[in-house]
Amino acid sequence: MLSRRNILATAAVGAVSAATARAADFGNPDQPPEGAVNVTNPKALTDPGPQDPGLAGNEAAFQNPPATDVNGMSQFWTSFNLAPKRIQNGGWARQITVDDFKISSTIAGVNMRLGPNGVRELHWHQQAEWAVVTAGVCRITILDQLGRPQVADVAEGGLWYFPAGFPHSLQGLGPDGTEFVIAFDNGESSEFNTLLVTDWIAHTPPEVLAKNFGLPEEAFKNIPVHNRWIYQSNTPALSLAEVEAQMASAAGKPPNPFVFYSDQFKTIHETKSGSVRLADSTNFLVSKTIAATVVTIKPGGMREMHWHPNADEWNYWLKGEGRVTVFNTGPEAMTANFHPGDVGYVKKAFGHYVENTGDTDLVYMEVFKADRFEEIGLSDWLAHSPKDMVAETLNIDLSLLSQIPNDNPALVPA
């Protein structure tokens, strides 16, 4: 196969066309050459067919990919902005599962809004539920396998984690209610296929209900015949402390909280270009199947080229604008643009970077089906490999290698 330099040398003696030589310029590594830079007839770049400019313009990298993109990999971009909502009195939800987003096999995502005093009814799941509050305040209740209850109010930036099978409820509080994003630790999970207490009660013989609860059958004559899922309630009559006292059990309280507040994140990287803050089983002790980070990138900064050796990354975009290129063997490389409400997915060990392309802070979350967060930075690896070997491999002047960061910065300036 022709190397980049071989192509240039061949072009110099007239063995290939000038167009092919241009295709071999820096940033155009493949044959056949990729990218708009290789086009000699401008009309080849036009798109005269039917299109939605608003939607197309949202993904500039799809319309005009870098010349370094090659061969097409599985789509790793989607968005809650395109997901249909299910709306009830009290709030709404929309979801992205493996049915909608084929690549996302380990994580299914739900975006839910509970208006003031809107309630997500008592329920449980076959999968673990991790969530981040993106607006307002949410009151959670949960009972563990030993009969130990917890109630807590979680504000914007806070998390909760409910192990599979643990029953719970959610309620929006205050004047604005709440909104949050859920990640289930199974890509096939569905918010619309959960185990609801109303469904179970409605589909149990009345005499069994009476025997189970020690009540007359007549007590259940007005039970809902359809599940409530999300419904409108009233302002809680009791304070948080009073609700906690009401829920108290002789079994006591759970030893480790099921909630994690925004000020509890551990900063693991911080530079002038931003920060990476961590919540996994090392500091959010109950979160055994989900590890997460909050990444903030300043304008012009970049989450350095890296990969995760232990799990796929599901990411959710909170603020700002960014560009991501994902690399896989093949070679395969694809670039996408991301905006608030978007979701990305990077397979385990696939190389990638995240660049802030806007003029405000970029904030997104990295979520992994794993008990701990792990990453390997490309610059860190090269800085701690034999210098002669790196110079030979990349054909870089040996004297320049000392400038490569050797402290695993995670975030780098433009």
What does this protein structure show overall?
The chain has 414 residues and is α+β, with helices and mostly antiparallel strands. The protein has 3 domains: 4-75, no CATH class; 83-260, Jelly Rolls (Sandwich); 265-412, Jelly Rolls (Sandwich). Helix content is 14%, strand content 34%. It is built from 9 helices and 25 strands. The radius of gyration is 26 Å and the shape is elongated. It starts with a helix and ends with a strand. The relative contact order is 0.13.
Task: Provide keyphrases for this structure.
twelve-stranded antiparallel β-sheet, elongated, Jelly Rolls, 9 helices, 414 residues, alpha+beta, seven-stranded antiparallel β-sheet, 3 domains, disordered N terminus
